[in-house]
Amino acid sequence: xxxxxxxYLLFVAFLFLSYSGKAQVEIKVEDVKLTxxxxxxxxxxxxxxxKVSAYLIYEDSTRSTFDVLNDTTVVLWNTIIGGGxxxxxxxxxxxxxxxxxxxxxxxxxxxxxxxxxQKLSNFGGFYDFIIDNTGCGEVKVLVTKFNxxxxxxxxxxxxxx
Length: 161
Fold this sequence. Notes:
The protein has helices spanning 2-18, 37-40; strands spanning 50-58, 90-101, 104-110, 113-120, 123-132, 139-145, 148-155. 13% of the residues lie in helices and 38% in strands.
């Protein structure tokens, strides 16, 4: 009973203090239902702590606005000449890691060739990898922590006529 009296008094005080004098607002107290926080509130799952994305780097050194690693709607056909969804010719790709994890190992393949094989201890913030000669072969990104996959993705570049 004390809880509902205190809640009612707090609610009335809030209404009194928020009154601007311009208009009156009628609120029915019986429409407000209070519940215990633990009964109704569900906490979201904890974040993984890492976001991996990739962007085309155009020949004029600008960057694409779309994420070529995670946006599956992007067409990456003949990006070396500005084809597909590429706005301009691109032969380089920027892979960006964002988050706060420790003991990561980043492996990136351009086609069948491993171009990045780097360990990041105490990783926090942003970390960029620039991959040269991209645009025709598939780029694979693999991030592991203690030999367990944290992130795995691919960029499906294609070339042809």
